[in-house]
Design a protein that fits this description.
Blueprint: E1 2-5, E2 9-12, E3 24-28, E4 36-41, E5 47-51, E6 56-59, E7 67-69, E8 77-81, E9 89-93, E10 98-101, E11 107-111, E12 119-123, E13 131-135, E14 140-143, E15 149-153, E16 161-165, E17 173-177, E18 182-185, E19 193-195, E20 203-207, E21 215-219, E22 225-228, E23 236-239, E24 245-249, E25 257-261, E26 266-269, E27 276-278, E28 286-290, E29 298-302, E30 307-310, E31 318-319, E32 328-332, E33 340-344, E34 348-352, E35 360-361, E36 371-375, E37 383-387, E38 392-395, E39 403-405, E40 412-417, E41 425-430, E42 434-439, E43 447-448, E44 457-461, E45 469-473, E46 478-481, E47 489-491, E48 498-502, E49 510-514, E50 519-522, E51 530-532, E52 540-544, E53 552-556, E54 559-563, E55 571-572, E56 581-585, E57 593-597, E58 602-605, E59 614-619, E60 622-627, E61 648-653, E62 658-663, E63 674-680, E64 688-692
């Protein structure tokens, strides 16, 4: 047995005074769209759920409202449990992550598990001190001191273990996983014996409701649900249908239980032997079910942020989420940060007039294909949207009504841009050929400008007028026109597919982004393009510089990047979303912005996407707004404060004790891991929270 001592890394999840919604936060769907893998309620009102991208949710009112907590990990969390009360809980996930809270989820500690194998299940049987976690490669971990030390236990298998359960105490327990493996221990996890489950199909959940004799496992591949009444010596198949069931739970006895799984299936038994299908109201896969007090009130969670609840023993299940879950491909706020539009798959058109607090669906006017791009050139009344099959829509009343236009092509259109007014505009797309259409009368008539290259056009931008513009597309296609599209000239850049182009200020300096982390920049009107280091291999779909050529954002697969120095450095931002983000827009400046993507994802930031605190100072009677950030944050050795490297900052620990003064290019060097607060010397400013990790 190997011993690993825990290094505690405290992460304060922004519940302190002054730390309102920072970074990127969810606006749609509510509470969020990430897949949820586990749900646990202490009682009928207080519960937690965890899922992809390290998401942690908490409710205090039975799921009417959920709080989304930023996580201290970016990987998936797969299991959560609060063993004795609503204060102390544990969550486990990717790369051996084990998180612990002792204050009801307000802050979490990252414990050292001693393994990089992903963990799939955690259980503390009736105590917050002794617990078990299981996962990849037959990993079994045990702690007897609340996670200060986790011991690696020999399981006897290299197969993944999905679940663990100790029905009474820490003496006798079971674990199950791939290939029908069921393990049993009767000596507190020191040794484990392989049981004959009677199947080689994967098992995902194990539960012994009352004692260590009668228990159930659920799985897939026609195994579904199996039962033992003799402590696992024999298992009898109870159900064999072509659905996988990922969670089985018996709330109060071994007779009444529930199982959830593939395609929103929910089964119930009231006699421990026969199972009846319930109507869940969803086709999303469900991964976890929990009835905290009795067999009447329960919760299930699953794909795309699905949360459903029953209060009548499963006769009816009600959704606890709201908002569209159709993927969104484009977002724009034409004049301010209050009124904006987002378009996407299944002809979705959403509009907000309150800064995204509410998004309302608008009629598309009979469009038959998904929408990929939206643009309101002058105001928030007249706008255009394009999509599959040549779909081109126009509104003149702020999206209340949309009229179909004939762009002169049935090829898919991926981008639309009207440079100066609502009369002269361009659409781009293709079907293995570059399509560009132009209108000069607000979309009534369109003229083909297709340059004839074997690559779809994915992005168009005219920086200052309707004459000089750029188009990018598949196979590294870059086109330029200086005469309003009469001629498009191919610019040479032999690279990956490109998806978006932006020239922030003039027709000289511009950026384009694309597959495999591609970011390229030109400063001579496209004569030369230089590759920039994005720091990610992920596909990038949209680039946007709100004010100038220095501060810009890129959205992509699981990614938002930001630069403040013209692309010399790109920093990844924590979005908390587990989806591709297809579009990003900052309507007025570099602070308030929106990003949209798959699963109906709409994210918003009011601080430029970074976890920063706002500082206000007065100079000669005028109020100046100063924003600082530390990067990287969290950090391992030291952090820097961009644009303030030579200034001095006071650093305080979590208790408020001053621990030193540091220059802006050497923040936190030599300090132990922990949470600190940074404040500029000589200024009456609010502190910036930073985290040092090991």
């Amino acid at each position: 047995m190997r011993h690993f001592r825990s290094v505690l890394i405290l992460a304060v999840l922004f519940l302190l005074p002054g730390f309102a919604q920072a970074g990127w936060f969810w606006q749609n769907p509510k509470p969020m769209a990430n897949t949820l893998n586990s749900v646990f309620f202490i009682d009928n009102n207080t519960g937690f759920s965890v899922g992809d991208a390290g998401i942690i949710l908490k409710t205090l009112d039975g799921g009417v409202n959920w709080t989304v907590y930023p996580s201290i990990i970016s990987g998936t969390l797969r299991s959560v449990q609060f063993p004795i009360d609503a204060q102390t809980g544990y969550a486990v996930g990717d790369l051996g992550a084990i998180l612990k809270t002792t204050n009801g989820g307000n802050s979490w500690v990252n414990q050292t598990s001693g393994t990089t194998n992903s963990l799939y299940s955690v259980l503390f049987p009736g105590t917050a001190q002794t617990g078990y976690a299981v996962g990849e490669a037959g990993t079994i971990l045990k702690t007897t001191n609340g996670g200060a030390i986790w011991d690696s236990v020999t399981s006897g298998t290299s197969l993944r273990l999905h679940c663990v359960h100790f029905p009474i105490d820490a003496q006798t327990g079971y674990a199950a996983g791939l290939a029908g493996y069921i393990l049993k221990t009767t000596d507190e996890g020191i040794t484990w014996t392989v049981l004959n489950s009677g199947t080689t199909n994967h098992l995902y959940s194990v539960h012994f409701p009352l004692d260590d004799q009668t228990g159930y496992v659920s799985g897939g591949g026609g195994t579904n649900i199996r039962k033992t009444t003799n402590g696992g010596t024999t298992w009898i198949e109870q159900l064999g249908i072509s659905k996988a069931f990922f969670s089985v739970h018996f709330p109060i006895d071994d007779q009444t239980g529930y199982a959830v799984g593939e395609d929103g299936f929910i089964l119930k038994t009231t006699n421990g032997s026969s199972w009846v299908e319930q109507t869940s109201g969803t086709t999303s896969w469900l991964y976890s079910v929990h009835f905290p007090v009795d067999a009447q009130t329960g919760y299930a969670v699953g794909d795309r942020g699905t949360i459903i609840k029953t209060t009548d023993g499963g006769t009816t299940w009600a959704s606890q989420t709201s908002g569209s879950k159709f993927s969104l491909g484009s977002v724009q706020f034409p004049n301010n940060d209050l009124t904006g539009y987002a378009v996407g798959w299944s002809d979705s058109i959403l509009k907000t007039t309150d800064g995204g607090a509410n998004w309302l669906s608008k009629a598309t006017g009979g469009a038959l294909y998904g929408l990929f791009s939206v643009h309101f050139p002058v105001d928030d009344l007249t706008g255009f949207a394009v999509g599959g099959g040549g779909t081109t829509l126009k509104t003149t009343d702020g999206g209340s009504n949309w009229v179909s236009l004939n762009p002169g092509t049935t090829n898919s259109l991926y981008c639309v841009y009207f440079p100066v007014d609502a009369m002269t505009g361009y659409v781009g797309g293709g079907n293995w050929s570059s399509t560009i259409q132009k209108t000069t009368d607000g979309g009534t008539n369109w003229v083909s400008q297709s340059p004839g290259f074997n690559a779809d056009v994915r992005g168009i931008h005219f920086p200052v007028d309707a004459q000089t513009g750029y188009a990018v597309g598949n196979s590294g296609l870059i086109l330029k026109t200086t005469n309003g599209g009469t001629n498009w000239v191919k610019q040479f850049w032999p690279g990956n597919d490109l998806r978006s182009v932006c020239f922030p200020v003039d027709a000289q300096t511009g950026y384009a982004v694309g597959f495999y982390g591609t970011i390229i920049k030109t400063t001579d009107g496209g004569a030369n393009w230089i590759q920039q280091s994005s720091g990610t291999p992920n596909n990038l779909y949209f680039v946007h510089f709100p004010l100038d050529g220095q501060t810009g954002y890129v959205a992509g697969f699981l990614t938002i990047l930001k630069t403040t120095n013209g692309g010399a450095n790109w920093v990844s931002q924590n979005t908390g979303a587990s989806y591709s983000l297809w579009s990003i827009h900052f309507p007025l400046g570099v602070q308030t912005g929106y990003a949209v993507g798959d699963g109906g994802t709409i994210l918003k930031t009011t601080d430029g996407g970074t976890w920063v605190e706002e500082e206000k100072a007065e100079v000669r009677g005028q109020k100046l707004e100063v924003r600082i950030m530390a990067t990287p944050n969290p950090f391992t050795s030291f952090a820097t404060v961009p644009e303030h490297e030579k200034e001095h900052f006071a650093l305080y620990d979590i208790s408020g004790r001053r621990v030193g003064t540091y220059r802006g290019d050497w923040i936190g060097y030599g300090l132990p891991a922990g949470v600190y607060f940074l404040r500029p010397e000589g200024r009456n400013a609010k502190p910036l929270r930073i985290v040092k990790v090991r």
